[in-house]
Design brief:
Layout lengths: L4 H15 L5 H21 L15 H6 L6 H16 L13 H4 L3 H14 L16 H17 L10 H10 L11 E4 L6 H9 L5 E6 L2 H13 L6 E4 L19 E6 L34 H11 E12 L8 H12 L2 E6 L12 E7 L8 E6 L5 E3 L2 E3 L2 H13 L7 E5 H6 L21 H6 L2 E2 H5 L2 H4 L3 H7 E3 L5 E4 L6 H6 L2 H26 L7 H15 L8 H26 L6 E4 L5 E5 L5 H8 L1 H27 L25 H14 L4 H40 L2 H44 L2 H21 L5
Parallel strand pairs: 1-2, 1-4, 2-3, 4-5, 6-8
Antiparallel strand pairs: 5-7, 6-7, 8-11, 9-10, 12-14, 13-14, 15-16
């Protein structure tokens, strides 16, 4: 049975979450992720010689399956984990979780049932890591990240800090040029690595690999980081645990000094108050504060930052997430900030939206450090990306277009009004080394200023029309079609009636030509990629595919005015995440197959069938159009009968105003308030016994006739649907690979992307229409005309009052 990747993850999460009972998500994650690891290594390495992981006898996931339903299942799982840990140097990693803990998992039968059900979740044949063939896109890493994100969301503010949102991690990896890493001889380090997500995003961005180092103070979180490394095929990563990086850094050179790295990334705890515990920063043997200053005793933000600076090689790069306060706070922090700026270590600052992180809701920034060329650095590049996000439950999330724009703009050092600026150090010095982003980039929306003279005398101010210059650059003569010169300097009047604004825009030749150009750009991109999409095969790497598609789409729309290329990019990436990604993974795993699977109701009873790759509508549109039209005609016929019955029921139900008697259809309603065939027949029989000419009898017989015809129509529709469904099923069995590709690539993917992208054209034109209507309406009624109207209304009121005998 083909199952979509996204459905697999969501069902895995739901099953696990249903079984955790009252346990906190931050604790329960340890059990789930250990089981995921054992399942993974068993599938991948059991029975193989010279395997990376040794699966000893009685030490694999299959042995856990044998324990289902047994009284001692908790103790049995602990023994399995102990054997697996001993054979692979994982003591203190996978065996730190106690599966026989009655306090967390329940006593007796409760523990037995919960653990048995939990093992059964991972026994799902679709969660097999041995059969994945989309090399480089292993479902394990994505499944792990999916679970971690959900655990972080559920854990709350105080316990969700083990996970850095993947979107932010990706940005940091790209901003430090991780893709330029030459191979395992180069290094990346995270001094507060949590579950290791930041380190892995850097590793993922390096095509030739990189050596990974990390330190984490919390033992259980450090164990997660080790598992994370193994499950992402980085078993040699050095994750050290159990000590504060500030008081006792564990990555040292043989002669004692702190080890330095090519890349350093970190998301340290914000404003950590206990950062001095265990050492005296004034006598720091590692000289991290020398030449900079000592951070405040109750705020460790700059302590972590200076540790990172000390850990970067002389030509290395770094990126660290810190609260916005580090950019402008005074006293000791101001002195440290000034020294960092003077040394040229700060290359750039990215202001992020609030409420992105799981440990806090405050706004944060990414500080990009670069020691290469620091002595000659004359400026700092700033990006205010605080407005680009979408709501995801109670958190904010960066969109794909936000990520792409931040990276593109920063790498190219491209200045965009209200978004990014290259700030000279001389200007920063003038502002006393305050790096607060709003002091350099005014990202506030322009106020829509009202024009007093226009309110008094009418017409539209030129300044408002000129603010639409991006439209007039594309539609130069449209401006003339819409507006004419006013008698007063600085104003224009609308040439056309207000109700014709939309029509004038949409039917204007320049608007039509722009739409054609838009279509040509998209059509060229489509033609360049259709063969590549049809060439997807078993083993294709989906992540590389979408990277190529999106890159080409960005380039295609880069030179088209009015359209924001990042908006277009987002349409593609949204469709990818919602639909296309699942499809591509299916093809990359199973090939171009029109597999069908049974659908079941909540009780597990089979109620139909479906295809994960090819929805029925695609096959109907291609091969059963005539049958579908006939079915639609029958449905229209049934709708007409239902409408007539509804009208008849409304007209002849209730109390007659004149006679006070109930109307006939009110007499035949069931206890549930419905008009039923049985009740109607019974009432007809009673009325016939009295008189065959009764008006109520005629109405009831008419309604019964409609009801019978409706029943027949419903049966005809059901029979036709069943016949079509059977014909469909037979057609699925005979679909050729060529036909499948045509429907999936052309009818499904490319058509959906095109429809989505074209909707942006409608948005642009409607925005222009709406703004012109708004300006027209704003200045339509001048103050003198309003005063005249008020006087007329006042006179009318006076006349009415006089007629009523009121005088004054």
């Amino acid at each position: 049975m083909a199952i979509k990747k996204s459905e697999l993850y969501s069902s895995l999460w739901k099953s696990c979450d249903d079984l955790r009972g009252g346990m906190d998500a931050s604790q329960y994650k340890d059990y789930i992720l250990v089981l995921l690891f054992v399942k993974y290594v068993t599938d991948k390495y059991a029975g193989q010689k010279n395997a990376l992981v040794i699966i000893p006898e009685n030490g694999g996931f299959d042995d856990m399956v044998k324990l289902k339903g047994k009284v001692d299942i908790g103790d049995g799982i602990n023994k399995i984990l102990s054997k697996l840990a001993e054979n692979n140097g994982l003591k203190g990693v996978i065996d730190v979780v106690n599966f026989n803990d009655e306090e967390k998992l329940g006593k007796g039968k409760a523990m037995q049932d919960r653990l048995s059900s939990l093992v059964a979740v991972f026994e799902n044949p679709d969660l097999s890591f041995s059969k994945n063939r989309a090399d480089g896109d292993d479902i394990l890493g994505d499944a792990y990240e999916y679970l971690m994100k959900n655990f972080a969301t559920e854990s709350g503010k105080s316990k969700g800090q083990f996970y850095t949102p993947a979107e932010v991690s990706r940005i940091m990896a790209m901003l430090i040029d991780a893709e330029k890493a030459s191979g395992p001889s180069q290094t990346v380090y995270d001094p507060t690595c949590g579950s290791g997500s930041l380190l892995l995003k850097v590793a993922e961005a390096t095509p030739n690999g990189i050596a990974i180092y990390g330190q984490e103070m919390d033992n259980s979180t450090a164990a997660l980081a080790v598992l994370n490394m193994w499950m992402h095929n980085n078993p040699t990563a050095e994750i050290k645990k159990g000590q504060s990086t500030l008081s006792n850094p564990l990555h040292l050179n043989n002669d004692g000094p702190i080890k330095t790295f090519d890349y350093v990334v970190a998301n340290p705890p914000f404003s950590y108050k206990s950062w001095r515990h265990g050492f005296n920063p004034e006598h720091d043997e590692y000289e991290r504060f020398t030449g900079f200053g000592i951070p405040p005793a109750r705020n460790g933000d700059y302590a972590f930052l200076l540790h990172i600076v000390r850990s970067i090689k002389s030509n290395g790069k770094g990126a660290v997430i810190l609260p916005h306060g580090v950019l402008f706070r005074g006293n000791a922090e101001a002195n440290i900030r000034q020294n960092l700026i003077k040394k040229g270590y700060i290359k750039g600052i990215i202001g992020l939206p609030p409420n992105l992180f799981y440990g806090t809701g405050i706004s944060a920034c990414v500080i990009i450090l670069d020691k290469e060329g620091a002595q000659n650095r004359k400026n700092i590049f700033m990006v205010d990306a605080s407005r680009g996000f979408y709501k995801d439950g109670n958190k904010n999330r960066l969109r794909e277009q936000d990520i792409r724009k931040i990276v593109d703009v920063f790498i190219a050092q491209f200045e965009i009004p209200k978004y990014s600026r290259l700030i000279p150090l001389s200007e920063i010095e003038e502002k006393e080394y305050d790096l607060n982003i709003p002091r350099y980039i005014d990202s506030q929306e322009e106020e829509d200023i009202q024009d007093i003279e226009a309110h008094l005398l009418g017409d539209i101010p030129n300044i408002d029309i000129d603010l639409l210059q991006n439209y007039w650059d594309v539609y130069p003569s449209l401006k003339t079609s819409l507006f004419g010169s006013s008698k007063r300097k600085g104003y224009k009047h609308l040439r056309i009636p207000e109700e014709e604004i939309k029509k004038t825009i949409f039917y204007h030749q320049e608007f039509i030509k722009y739409g054609q150009k838009f279509q040509q750009v998209f059509g060229k991109w489509k033609n360049e990629n259709v063969l590549g999409l049809r060439s997807i095969q078993v083993g294709t790497k989906p992540k590389e595919l979408i990277k190529s598609l999106s890159e080409k789409l960005i380039v295609a729309f880069s030179n088209l005015k009015l359209i924001d290329k990042y908006d277009i990019y987002q349409h593609l990436m949204t469709y990818w995440s919602e639909t296309m990604q699942d499809d591509v993974y299916l093809v990359a795993t199973n090939g171009w197959k029109a597999e069908v699977d049974p659908t079941r109701n909540k009780k597990g009873k089979e109620i139909g069938w479906e295809s994960a790759l090819i929805p029925k509508t695609l096959v109907i549109d291609r091969y059963f159009k005539v049958e579908q039209i006939e079915l639609e005609k029958l449905q229209v016929k049934q709708d007409e009968l239902n409408q007539k019955m509804q009208e008849l029921a409304e007209e002849h139900s209730g109390i007659d105003v004149q006679s006070g008697e109930e109307r006939p259809l009110e007499l035949v309603r069931s206890d549930a308030g419905n008009i039923t065939k049985g009740n109607i027949k019974e009432q007809i029989k009673e009325l016939r016994d009295v008189s065959s000419l009764d008006d109520g009898l005629i109405i009831l017989e008419e309604y019964l006739d409609l009801l019978n015809r409706g029943t027949n129509a419903k049966k005809e529709i059901k029979d036709t649907e069943k016949k079509l469904d059977q014909a469909l099923l037979e057609r699925y069995k005979t679909l050729t690979e060529k036909e499948i590709k045509q429907m999936v690539v052309d009818d499904k993917w490319l058509k959906s992307i095109e429809d989505s992208v074209r909707s942006k054209m409608d948005v642009i034109s409607l925005q222009l229409t709406r703004r012109i209507k708004e300006l027209t309406k704003r200045y339509r009624n001048t103050l003198p005309s309003i005063e005249d109207e008020a006087k007329e209304l006042s006179k009318k009121v006076d006349r009415h009052l006089k007629k009523m005998g009121y005088t004054w």
